[in-house]
Design goal:
Layout lengths: L2 E4 L2 E4 L4 E7 L8 E7 L6 E6 L6 E3 L7 E6 L4 E6 L8 E8 L15 E2 L3 E6 L1
Parallel strand pairs: 2-11
Antiparallel strand pairs: 1-3, 3-8, 4-5, 4-9, 5-6, 7-8, 9-10, 9-11
Length: 125
């Protein structure tokens, strides 16, 4: 399984960005997927996760109501729509996959067995 995150960039506070994560693998529709982020000098933190069907999603409290995770299994891609961005959202964003437990959503990094390379999001004040 290979994951390729994209869509990061520089945006002003209050703006929006949409991140994408394209995955390889013929059974992508069975993968549990998540987004994490790592700000400078901080540990990697959970952002959002979604089940294989897209029927269940969970969010970190800090992004609830502003970010939306979704997936298109026909395109082997998940998305993270980020609205009302704040300077504290500045981080490298990583997508992650668990090909074996698609019906579970998890906030724990150890749940995910495959990680993308990250895409940088910078929010200016």
């Amino acid at each position: 399984v290979q994951l390729q995150a994209s869509g990061g960039g520089l945006v002003q506070a209050g703006g929006s960005l949409r991140l994408s994560c394209a995955a390889s693998g013929r059974t992508f529709s069975r993968y549990g997927m998540g987004w994490f982020r790592q700000a400078p000098g901080k540990e990697r933190a959970f952002v959002a996760a979604i089940t294989w069907s897209g029927g269940t999603s969970i969010y970190a409290d800090s992004v609830e109501g502003r970010f939306t995770i979704s997936r298109d299994n026909a395109k082997n891609t998940i998305y993270l729509q980020m609205n009302s961005l704040k300077p504290e959202d500045t981080a490298v964003y990583y997508c992650a996959a668990n090909p074996s437990s698609g019906s579970i959503v998890s906030r724990a990094p150890v749940f995910y067995t495959h990680w993308g390379q990250g895409t940088l999001v910078t929010v200016s004040s």
